[in-house]
Automatic annotation (TrEMBL):
<dbReference type="GO" id="GO:0046872">
    <property type="term" value="F:metal ion binding"/>
</dbReference>
<dbReference type="GO" id="GO:0004337">
    <property type="term" value="F:(2E,6E)-farnesyl diphosphate synthase activity"/>
</dbReference>
<keyword id="KW-0414">Isoprene biosynthesis</keyword>
<keyword id="KW-0479">Metal-binding</keyword>
<comment type="similarity">
    <text>Belongs to the FPP/GGPP synthase family.</text>
</comment>
<dbReference type="InterPro" id="IPR000092">
    <property type="entry name" value="Polyprenyl_synt"/>
</dbReference>
<keyword id="KW-0808">Transferase</keyword>
<dbReference type="Pfam" id="PF00348">
    <property type="entry name" value="polyprenyl_synt"/>
</dbReference>
<dbReference type="GO" id="GO:0005737">
    <property type="term" value="C:cytoplasm"/>
</dbReference>
<dbReference type="InterPro" id="IPR008949">
    <property type="entry name" value="Isoprenoid_synthase_dom_sf"/>
</dbReference>
<dbReference type="InterPro" id="IPR053378">
    <property type="entry name" value="Prenyl_diphosphate_synthase"/>
</dbReference>
<dbReference type="GO" id="GO:0016114">
    <property type="term" value="P:terpenoid biosynthetic process"/>
</dbReference>
<keyword id="KW-0460">Magnesium</keyword>
<dbReference type="InterPro" id="IPR033749">
    <property type="entry name" value="Polyprenyl_synt_CS"/>
</dbReference>
<protein>
    <recommendedName>
        <fullName>Farnesyl diphosphate synthase</fullName>
        <ecNumber>2.5.1.10</ecNumber>
    </recommendedName>
</protein>
């Protein structure tokens, strides 16, 4: 199976599993369940759950068995997007090409949707104790809780908020991205690897893979933002870098940012040597991430 076909097939399996694991839209109280489903099924790329599946595959684990944990990562990601879009945060009207959760269901309901998705994620992880030894589930729970908490994505969001309208250093920007974006990618890969039965060496390689992949993702995201904005207002790409909030292109320039994304992608792939053909999907995923257009 080629990469695009496999990505599509895994995304479909993730969607089917999410549909199974989430409360039905009609379940009382229906408003919250409908609103949870509204954001979960809004057309995300499913990168985090697919990373869980691919990391398990790379270490020879059972892909079907790890699905609940894969879905948990997508629920945490979706919760962070719903809360990030709120008026008190980024105040965004659109996400994944449709009105944001609070625009449709109101601010109070969107807060509760985020809370419910985060909580449901940990319910799914806990249920994995039926399929894995308790110590492994415990390790993975800690990994994911760490990544989602104030030492992970919340920490990144806080530093991002406090840095708004200030000139920040490369180190602060790296902190923001490693926590806000990188932590969940890292937890996804490590969770899949641990549950799949990774050796210490395999886990170390996959951890470094996830960190470099996360960096490549973030730089590409910054580049896409510029290309998107400037296409809309008809300016040449990169002409307005100084007025951008602190991003890789605004700090390092367009050319260097592109090189950095490429270097991070190559560094990520270099970590996959010991896995041979079992890591083919993870290899292709990095190329997909740096060549994507959205
Ligand atoms: C809990 C409020 C709160 C915030 C936590 C993660 C986060 C901080 C906020 C999410 C918003 C954001 C812009 C995060 C940066 C990472 C990023 C570019 C997310 C988008 O990920 P994709 O491209 O999205 O995988 P899809 O829609 O495809 O799932």
């Amino acid at each position: 199976m080629n990469f695009a076909t496999e990505l599509k097939a895994w995304s479909k399996q993730v969607d089917d599993a999410l549909d199974l694991y989430l409360p039905k839209a009609e379940e009382y109280p229906a408003t919250i369940h409908e609103a949870m489903r509204y954001s979960v099924f809004a057309g995300g790329k499913r990168l985090r759950p697919v990373l869980v599946l691919a990391a398990t595959q790379a270490v020879g684990g059972d892909v079907a068995k790890v699905m609940p944990v894969a879905c948990a990562l997508e629920l945490i990601h979706t919760y962070s997007l719903v809360h990030d879009d709120l008026p008190a945060m980024d105040n965004d009207d659109f996400r994944r090409g449709r009105p944001t959760n609070h625009k449709v269901y109101g601010e109070a309901m969107a807060i509760l949707v985020g809370d419910a998705l985060l909580t449901h994620a940990f319910e799914l992880i806990a249920r994995s104790a039926e399929d894995y030894p308790a110590d492994k589930v415990n390790t993975v729970t800690l990994e994911i809780a760490w990544a989602a908490g104030s030492r992970g994505l919340i920490g990144g969001q806080v530093v991002d908020m406090l840095s708004e309208n200030k000139a920040i250093t490369g180190e602060v920007m790296e902190y923001i991205h490693r926590h806000k974006t990188g932590a969940l990618f890292r937890a996804a890969v490590r969770a899949g690897a641990i549950l799949g039965g990774a050796s210490e060496e395999e886990l170390s390689c996959l951890t470094r893979y996830s960190e470099q992949m996360g960096l490549a993702f973030q730089i590409k995201d910054d580049l896409l933002d510029i290309e998107g904005d400037e296409a809309k207002i008809g300016k040449p790409v990169g002409s307005d870098l100084k007025n951008q909030k602190c991003t890789y292109p605004s700090l390092y320039g367009l050319e260097q940012a592109r090189n950095m994304a490429q270097q991070a992608a190559e560094a990520a792939c270099a970590e996959l040597k010991i896995f041979g053909s079992r890591a083919e999907f993870l290899r292709s995923l990095v190329h997909f991430i740096i060549s994507r257009d959205h």
